[in-house]
Structures are given as C-alpha cells and as structure tokens.
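Database export, one record per block. Field names are fixed; values are copied verbatim from the stored entry.
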Amino acid sequence: MALAWLAATLPLHAGAGPALQIVPTNHAFLLHWSTNGAATVFSLQTSADLNQWASATDAVPATYGSDEAVSVTGASNAQFFRLIAVSAVTPAGMAAIPAGSFTIGDTLDGEGDATPTNVSLSRFFIDTNLVGSNLWATVYAYAISQGYAFDFPGRGKAADHPVQTVTWYDCVKWCNARSQQQGLTPAYYTDAGLTEVYTKGDIDALFVNWTANGFRLPTEAEWECASRGGLTGRRFPWGDTISWSQANYFGNPGAYSYDEAAGVDFDPPYATGGYPYTSPAGALPPNGYGLCDMAGNVLEWCWDWYAGPPFSAGSPYLGGTDPRGPVSSSSGLRVQRGGDWSDNASYARCANRNFGSPGNASSNIGFRCVRAF
C-alpha cells in the first residue's frame, strides 16, 4: 500500500509547524510529529486529491517516543495528510493530557476488577484541581437562573475546598451549565439528536456529544491515565508508597505495608472544625501532569457504569480506543475513583475502583471536569 504525505500547513498558527513523519508498520502506517513541548494542538486531516480535506477518522492514537502519533490502517493508494493547528491555549485551570497508549489497572494488591489492559486515548483537557465549592456555587446560581434543577445544592467546607455532597446526576447537569455559561457546546443530552440539553431530573439514558468543546465527567480510562501522571505500573501517582505529605486520607500503616502515615487517624492538618476533613486546592503536591488530589481528599465521579453484579467477579475494563464503559449496567452503579479523606490508603491507589449509586450524595464524593480538544 502506497502512502503520500504533505508537510504541515498551519492556517491558524503563525510560524513553521512540525514535520509530519511516516513509518510503515504491519498492515498500517504510523504517522508522528514532534511538538517539542509546545502548547499548540494539531488535528490530522486527509485528502485523496488535495482539493477537499477532512479529519482522518481512521487515525488511532499510538505511541512513538515523545512524539504525538497515530496509526492509520484505512489509507488508500493515493492519500495525503496534513496537520492543522486547532488550539494553542490550554484553558485556564486545566492541564493537557497527551494522546497515546497506556496500561490501565494493575495487580499489585490482588485487584479482582483491575486486570491490566492496553488503552489508547485521544488528547483531552482536565481540571488541575477538584471542582471547588466557590466555582460550584457560581455555576450553580447561573444554572438555577436558566431553569436547571438539582437534587442537592452541594456543600464545601470552605471556598477553596472541593465541593462534596453532590450526586452523579447533579455533576453531569452542572457540567452542562458550566459549558453554557462559558459559551461552549454542552456534552449531555436527553435525545439521540443532541438537541435537548440535560438540565433536570435523574436520567440514566443520556446521549453524549463526545466531540463537544464543553465540560463533562472523565471516562474511567481518562481519569486513570490522568491520575498516573505519566507513570505506569505504580501503586500511586508518584510511586508505590503513600504518606500524609502526599495525600489526604485516613492513615492506618499497620494494615497496609505501603502506608507511611505517622499514625492511625485522619490527616492531622485537615482534621479540624468537624466533618468533612477535606483539604484546600493545591495543599498537596501535584502529579507528573500537574494535577492535584488524584489520590485522596474526595472520591471523584466518572462517566462509566460499573458493570455487575456479581461483584465478586469484578467489572473488567473494556480496553481499546477511547473506551467509555459499559452501555448499561444491571447494578445501576457509576464508577468513583481516587480515594478520600475518610478512607484508608487502599482507596487512594490508581487502580482502585469504587462505585456508587448515581443518586447518592456524600461528604466524601466530589468530581473534576474534562474537555475534548
């Protein structure tokens, strides 16, 4: 199979663009380009005649050293490619997670539902901090004025602490309101035609515009990729042990060999003023992607259903490209990730998978948002 290619063209970005390179592989071609750490995001387009260009829909995220890379399997004998600059700015308060493959899950501690498998993800943005109480309140007030209805108003110990006591349904609706407040396209709808924005009620059968530029909950795969901060096969975002200097959780070093907390108790600096013992944004070190509280503080709602029962058999990862979890679940439970202030170190592991009823609201559950490129 022959394959032609073009040098990058950048109508939305001044200056020279990255060189687009092609490497033949088994029954496919690997296209890669170096960003040299630049913030600009490029979209791969394809054409058969150089006159009409379209997104390369058969391009699957791949790994090629530190370069951005995709694998193309459906190329015709006369196909051209080019890069188009589509974004040069990471949204305020968010970090850009690069596209590529990573190993989701581990078996370091006998997990029954986190058997490692390979996942390929497209690039995405994610909040560097949990959604804070102050941000929640601002968007919530806007949403109410626009006819949104929520199950709970949400709570926060202080303006710079994470919001908690929010249901999965409320978080999804709040994502839509945050999008609309910023003039972005909402992600969640109640109809297949994506015309009725989800604003009220507790609805499970939602439709998602995955390419919308608005806010949404991370998929479980996106969350774990982001939580690991570029590391693989480690218990936590920074390594294989945990201490109060790294995360806000309930210490119990006698029960877990990897727990290096100074005692059996809540994290001392934050165990004040009554429950919940949450910690403020940025109080603890970020991971390799610059994300805070990917372990501890509050559990985080994800988009995915947790399949089951029986839970003894676990709910295996789907793997593959941009997985979004089961299409339904007899358990009626959604995935939660990340550990929290009231649970032990085992909950804070990158591979730990928690789950809860989407209508449940608790002082140890919050969330953060992602956005598509």
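Remark 1: The chain has two domains: 1-89, 93-373.
Remark 2: Confidence is low (pLDDT under 50) at residues 1-16.
End of record.
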